[in-house]
Design goal:
The complex is a heterodimer.
Chain A: H1 2-32, H2 39-57, H3 60-81, H4 91-113, E1 118-119, E2 129-132, E3 135-138, H5 139-161, H6 163-173, H7 175-180, H8 185-207, E4 212-213, H9 217-232, H10 237-257, H11 262-276
Antiparallel strand pairs in A: 1-4, 2-3
Chain B: H1 17-34, E1 59-66, H2 73-92, H3 95-100, E2 112-119, H4 124-137, E3 142-144, H5 149-161, E4 165-168, E5 185-187, H6 192-207, E6 212-218, H7 221-236, E7 240-247, H8 255-262, E8 268-271, H9 275-287, H10 290-293, E9 295-300, H11 304-309, H12 311-314, E10 318-320, H13 332-345, H14 351-370, H15 375-383, E11 388-390, E12 393-397, E13 404-405, E14 408-413, E15 426-432, H16 434-437
Parallel strand pairs in B: 1-2, 1-3, 3-4, 4-5, 6-7, 6-8, 8-9, 9-10
Antiparallel strand pairs in B: 10-14, 11-12, 12-13, 14-15
The chains are: A mainly alpha, B alpha/beta.
């Protein structure tokens, strides 16, 4: 029983981290209608930028800021330079072009850092182990859980409680109307893409003390965040959180019974959601 | 990527007529001495694979399918350097290569070796596409490269079908020269069975006989066969197996497996992961405090792991590996190799570069001994089991399953205080006699196919 509780808790911790990674993807899709296949690569870019900043300054907080900012700047360039031309084009065009951008970014990272895995040390305030009942858990993972939860709440407030969020959400519903009201929708779109990219880079730095960095780590992230977003509802911000927690719990709990099937179960659940609720658990029915 | 990079423009681009004549006479003479009259009229042989089209000019093409991306990309990039060094030395007729392949002069049978590289991405499908391109478009006479056994086995099958020799670089699964063996495939490196058989007595001696082991296993042929072999040989030494956690290749988060491992009651964690997977899972095991309570064993160790994890984690950890550069203190040919490699690439070679290098040298040797590129004759030349001196002593191939018999070290991570410099990560505990740890012939059900 205590093992079950341990895995249940671990599912929540990994789930919120997955949710954090998935938010950028779902915000960009929800607002701009673009399926951003470069999301995993932006995660990688953020993690590596954080790694370099951490090495230079020895401060993990600066690493987080740098990782997020580098991803933001690259996101802005990508939006202005390429993605902007693809709004309103068929999704397969968007997927191909963002996928291509992702490959280019990863290869640049590989060119700079090489293919060997790099290890980001846990910040001093995150080293150590915590005993929760019979569960032994790394302190940093607990902190990552708190950081993920805090960030998700903050993002929720921005999107649902500020006028910027209002404009963004209105832009999703009817961009023409928002334009007529005198708001520069293009600039809003740029901002949204930037925020989405920044979220990926930020998540990359938060995740980096837990895993080792390799240029290919983004692929797995991309797949996982897609599963999360599909389960939760594509384009839905609360959906990313719900989807993340569900995915985390599936991975964690199935590994108790038969670890070999934990990944399979994730996709089985995704398939079931698609069959019985194609728009995802929190997705809105009938949305384009 | 590096598609079709035409490497090594040789200094001796054309072979003049006199050399051709000499070579022809030499080949004929050699054939007569060998008492194989069929060899004299090479032109009479029906074409096999890319023979004779692939060797009609003055060069021969080698296709390298390397895992330059994916969880094993560090090893793939290292392999590329090993091939490049061997090909450069072959084309120059360097004395280093002649110590391994005494018949080598310049190039192979006077032909310049050219090569191309395609990224196999640690995926069997991509590897097969790459190999097919090399065989059909470049008339490759040999395909080589692999880190993942899934890739090696797929490549071996397609190359056998295409009647093109395939040399696995790194492949740890028992099945590569077991049930999945092929007439056109050869594996030089040590593998799961030999690693497990070699390391288990060392583990029992240094760590004790009553250990309870739990395994972390990547879910594909290499992971499963290594688990089977480790279980078999450690249990013979008195160890108990208390569980295994199977996970998908390329997993990022191991927390749920590690919680199960922490609750397994084991005192020893055996990580069968390789490449980035091993770096990730071991780093996380350390964070979960598991390594403070359990001893860590990595039976099939990539030396890169030491650099990736750092000496704090890797100290005291036992592993079998293909090569470690301090072997140069004991073996002159290893010194030659390490010196040449460092001169060219400004870094130490790893086991992946070593196996790529030696594979290329021994391929050249097999052809020189056969006196022809005709694939069935080259295969028969390999199957003679001719012993040669490699960087770690005597090395040869078994005729029955094309498994290389090769010595390899067992290493133990050094304490940070004992390290002379950053690259001084491992002590060599023992050099295993390769012949003593290969499985009996037929043990894994190898049945080789036909030559043509």
């Amino acid at each position: 029983m205590s093992l079950f509780l341990s895995q249940l808790f671990n599912g929540l911790a990994t789930g919120l981290l997955l949710a954090l990674i998935s938010t950028g993807l779902t915000i960009i899709y929800g607002t701009l209608g673009v399926v951003n296949f470069a999301h995993g690569a932006l995660f990688v870019v953020g993690a590596y930028a954080g790694f370099t900043a951490y090495g230079l300054t020895n401060s993990f907080l600066i690493a987080i800021v740098v990782g997020a900012l580098v991803a933001l700047v690259i996101g802005l360039f990508i939006e202005r330079g390429v993605v902007r031309l693809y709004y309103g084009r068929p999704p397969e065009d968007q997927i191909l072009v963002t996928f291509g951008i992702g490959i280019v970014l990863v290869e640049i990272v590989r060119g700079i850092y090489g293919g060997v895995s790099l290890s980001v040390p846990t910040p001093t305030w995150g080293t150590g182990i915590v005993h929760i009942g019979s569960l032994i858990y790394p302190l940093y993972r607990l902190e990552a859980l708190a950081i993920s939860a805090g960030t998700l709440i903050a993002l929720y407030f921005v999107l649902y409680r500020t006028s910027l969020g209002l404009i963004v959400r209105a832009g999703i519903e009817d961009s023409l109307m928002v334009n007529i009201l005198g708001i520069n929708v293009k600039r809003i779109f740029l901002l949204v893409f930037g925020i989405g990219a920044m979220a990926a880079g930020y998540a990359g730095v938060i995740d980096s003390p837990i895993v080792t960095l390799a240029p290919d780590m983004g692929f797995r992230v991309l797949v996982d965040s897609f599963v999360v977003v599909v389960i939760g509802g594509v384009g839905s911000f609360p959906g990313a959180i719900v989807g993340g927690i569900i995915a985390g719990e599936i991975l964690s709990l199935t590994s108790m019974f038969d670890p070999a099937y934990s990944d399979v179960m994730l996709f089985v659940v995704m398939a079931l959601v698609l069959i019985f609720r194609p728009q995802g658990i929190m997705g809105q029915e009938g949305r384009e | 990527m590096d598609d079709n990079k035409e490497g090594m423009d040789s200094q001796q681009g054309g072979v003049d007529r006199r050399t051709m004549l000499k070579m022809g006479l030499g080949a004929a003479g050699g054939a007569l001495i060998a008492g194989a009259p069929g060899l004299v009229l090479a032109a009479d042989k029906a074409p096999v694979g890319n023979y004779p089209a692939g060797v009609s000019g003055d060069s021969v093409f080698v296709g390298l399918t390397l895992d330059l991306t994916g969880p094993y990309s560090a090893e793939g990039a290292d392999e590329q350097k090993g091939y490049e060094l061997a090909i450069e030395q072959l084309n120059a007729g360097a004395p280093e290569i002649q110590k391994i392949s005494p018949l080598t002069k310049k190039g192979i049978l006077g032909k310049t070796v050219k090569y191309g590289v395609i990224d196999a991405e640690t995926k069997p499908n991509s590897a097969v596409q790459a190999a097919t391109r090399f065989i059909h478009e470049n008339k490759a006479m040999m395909i080589s490269g692999s880190v993942s056994s899934a890739v090696a086995i797929a490549l071996q099958k397609v190359c056998d079908r295409e009647k093109t020799i395939y040399l696995a670089a790194i492949s740890g699964s028992n099945e590569t020269t077991g049930v999945d063996c092929q007439r056109y495939g050869f594996r030089l490196c040590y593998f799961a069975y030999s690693a497990a058989k070699a390391i288990s007595p060392v583990l029992a001696k240094s760590m004790g006989k009553n250990r309870k082991a739990v395994y972390l296993v990547p879910d594909y042929t290499y992971g499963h066969t290594t688990y089977d072999s480790m279980k078999e040989f450690t249990e013979k030494e008195g160890w108990k197996t208390v569980g295994q956690q199977v996970h998908p290749l390329g997993a990022k988060d191991y927390s749920s497996y590690l919680i199960n491992i922490a609750n397994s009651g084991a005192d020893t964690l055996v990580v069968i992961d390789y490449g980035a997977d091993a770096a990730n899972s071991i780093k996380q095991a350390k964070q979960f405090g598991i390594l403070d309570k359990m001893s860590l064993v990595v039976p099939y160790m990539a030396p890169f792991l030491g650099e990736e994890l750092g000496p704090e984690i890797i100290q005291g950890v036992y592993g079998a590996t293909g090569f470690w550069w301090t072997l140069q203190d004991k073996y002159p040919i290893a010194k030659d190799f390490v010196t040449a490699f460092e001169k060219k690439f400004k870094q130490k070679p790893h086991d992946s570069a070593y196996i790529a290098y030696l594979n290329t040298a021994l391929w050249a040797d097999a052809i020189e001994r056969a006196g022809t590129f005709y694939p069935p004759d080259v295969i028969k030349s390999y199957e003679k089991g001719q012993k040669r001196q490699g960087p770690v002593g005597e090395v040869w191939f078994r005729p029955e399953d094309h498994q290389g018999v090769i010595n390899f070290p067992i290493v133990r991570g050094k304490k940070p205080a004992d390290m002379k410099d950053k690259s001084d990560l491992f002590d060599i505990v023992a050099v295993v006699d390769g012949a003593a740890v290969v499985p009996p012939v037929g043990h894994f059900g190898c049945k080789l196919g036909s030559y043509v």
